[in-house]
Amino acid sequence: MRPSDTSHEFSLTGKLLLSHPALRDPSFRRTIVFLPNHDVEGGAFGLIINRPTSEVLADFLVEPPASAVLSEVPVFTGGPVGTDELTLAAFSFSAGTGLVSCQTHLSLDEAEAMKSGGESIVRAFRGYAGWTSGQLEGEINQHAWLVKEAEAKLIAGELNEQTWVGLVSALGPAYRLLALAPDDPSLN
Predict the structure, then answer these.
(1) Angle formed by the axes of helices 173-180 and 161-169, nearest 10°
(2) From CA 68, how far away is CA 46, in angstroms rounded?
(3) Domains plus CATH for the chain?
(4) pLDDT single digits (tens) 46-77
(5) Global confidence as pTM
């Protein structure tokens, strides 16, 4: 999917960005970014969803939460901006439309309520990805990103670099070759 215009109605909110296999920026190499918020004038806010860390939310809390519901929430590297900040996010799924939505910047109480309700997946992100007005659209037009619909099955699954390889490979044989190619072809 490519943006065909820059009208006020064009939005990638709720979509995934797959980094193009040729994108070598270490901050975004082989990443999947979920866009909880995007508009042409205001820019975009995204979270890298396929860079898990070995940490859980309890590792970041001064005191353990009142209930153990949040203790084991996994922490991901969410992006290169604000890496000293932790963002709690809840992913929800619409059964009728299949759309994925994401509420971000949740308080501990909000995250606990959403996780306890069982209808949302709560994750924590250290850092985020951000784009100013028109910046993301320019990067998409330069083919740095491939846009994909977010699917509940994908968001709910185990996310890592292999998830990116699978998604990019599914785009066709040329993308599969690029996704599987070593960073340094001389090592092949």
Answers:
(1) 150
(2) 28
(3) 15-187 (3.40.1740.10)
(4) 999 999 999 999 998 887 666 678 889 999 99
(5) 0.89
